[in-house]
DNA sequence: AATCAGGCCTGCGGGC
DNA sequence: TGCCCGCAGGCCTGAT
């Protein structure tokens, strides 16, 4: 589910619930996810106050007092759910960070809720991840960037440092299709299958074009397209291909604005009617679906 | 060094 | 209605 805009939205939802509060208990329902939970996870988090949050690519970092950060990655199917303890209303933090249906606090735990943080202000925040491709780790706050999952990441696409020149340098010499290059987190960090498709569409670049040939003038179109689609999605609360609700009670709605993703055989929104384009095509690249308009994207 | 297929897991929707 | 198959938003590993 979660690419950069979704992780950003979830992180903001978590921040609204947790920042400034103390974790009084950590419940672990299994030994780990993609890899084992860090040694002493519960002991090292319990009793600590949550200082702040930040996001790096698709990773969330929850800074705790005493200098450690809880790193959370949602993988493909991860989401956060939050509910006040002992209250009739039971908000949930969906993939976008938040609140939905009501269940009694004695209701059985949600399926695949692998870790729960209980706070001193009476909230339970759970990490639900059916496919278990997610990850949890602890890292010294001063050494976050050196964590093995973060150290190799490329630039943040919304940072000023992510410029056409920087992207061109990263693409130069790459003999792989631009679609695959943009999914490479060392080139730019945080894009996934959906937003790569959408950004290439906006930039009018074929997903099959060699990455090397996108350095230069095409990067001048690609970088603003990437920034725009991410910023618009964050502004819409991310996209939800499943049901979920945010902390403010709104669902992420950006999926309604996808131009190409998941729209095989639908007309391309920007092609003029005559002669009609053949519509959005789906192809498979590196084992993943790519959606694009062959007429508009060259 | 760079690139790609395969694997990790479970759930869901479409077709029969 | 029910079963089976293909597919899914990420990322790491190993083979080439």
TrEMBL record:
Q: How does it assemble?
A: Monomer.
Q: Name one GO molecular function term.
A: 8-oxo-7,8-dihydroguanine DNA N-glycosylase activity
Query: What's noted on cofactor binding?
Result: Binds 1 zinc ion per subunit.
**Source organism superkingdom:** Bacteria
Checking CDD domains in the record gives: EcFpg-like_N (cd08966)
Catalytic activity, as annotated: 2'-deoxyribonucleotide-(2'-deoxyribose 5'-phosphate)-2'-deoxyribonucleotide-DNA = a 3'-end 2'-deoxyribonucleotide-(2,3-dehydro-2,3-deoxyribose 5'-phosphate)-DNA + a 5'-end 5'-phospho-2'-deoxyribonucleoside-DNA + H(+); Hydrolysis of DNA containing ring-opened 7-methylguanine residues, releasing 2,6-diamino-4-hydroxy-5-(N-methyl)formamidopyrimidine
Could you say which EC number(s) this protein's record lists?
A: 3.2.2.23, 4.2.99.18
What is the official name of this protein in its record? Formamidopyrimidine-DNA glycosylase
Source organism per entry reads Neoroseomonas marina
Q: Which Gene3D superfamilies match?
A: 1.10.8.50, MutM-like, N-terminal (3.20.190.10)
Presence of keyword Kinase:
no
Domain annotation Formamidopyrimidine-DNA glycosylase catalytic: ranges? 2-134
The record ties this protein, via HAMAP family, to: Fapy_DNA_glycosyl
- What is annotated as the active site? 2-3, 58, 288
Family indicated by similarity: Belongs to the FPG family.
The encoding gene is mutM
Q: Where is the FPG-type domain?
A: 259-298
Q: Which NCBIfam families match?
A: fpg, PRK01103.1
Q: Which GO terms describe its biological process?
A: base-excision repair
């Amino acid at each position: 589910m979660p690419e950069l805009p979704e992780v950003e939205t979830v992180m903001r939802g978590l921040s609204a619930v947790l920042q400034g509060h103390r974790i009084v208990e950590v419940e672990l329902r299994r030994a780990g996810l993609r890899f084992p939970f860090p040694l002493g996870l519960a002991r090292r988090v319990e009793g600590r106050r949550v200082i702040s949050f930040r996001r790096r690519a698709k990773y969330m970092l929850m800074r705790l007092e005493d200098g450690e950060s809880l790193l959370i990655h949602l993988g493909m199917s991860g989401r956060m759910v939050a509910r006040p303890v002992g209250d009739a209303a039971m908000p949930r933090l969906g993939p976008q960070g938040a609140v939905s249906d009501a269940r009694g606090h004695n209701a059985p735990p949600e399926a695949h809720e692998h870790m729960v943080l209980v706070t001193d202000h009476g909230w339970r925040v759970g990490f639900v991840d059916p496919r278990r491709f997610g990850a949890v780790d602890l890292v010294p706050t001063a050494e976050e960037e050196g964590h093995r999952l973060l150290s190799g990441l490329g630039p943040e696409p919304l940072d000023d440092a992510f410029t056409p020149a920087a992207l061109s340098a990263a693409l130069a010499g790459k003999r792989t299709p631009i679609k695959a290059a943009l999914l490479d987190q060392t080139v730019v960090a945080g894009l996934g299958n959906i937003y790569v498709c959408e950004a290439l569409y906006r930039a009018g670049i074929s997903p099959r074009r060699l990455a090397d040939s996108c350095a230069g003038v095409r990067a001048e179109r690609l970088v603003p397209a990437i920034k725009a689609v991410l910023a618009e999605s964050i502004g819409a609360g991310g996209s939800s291909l499943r049901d979920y609700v945010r902390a403010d009670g709104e669902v992420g709605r950006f999926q309604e604005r996808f131009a190409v993703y998941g729209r095989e055989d639908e007309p391309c929104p920007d092609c003029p009617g005559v002669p009609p384009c053949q519509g959005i095509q789906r192809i498979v690249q590196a084992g993943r679906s790519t959606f694009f308009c062959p007429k508009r994207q060259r």
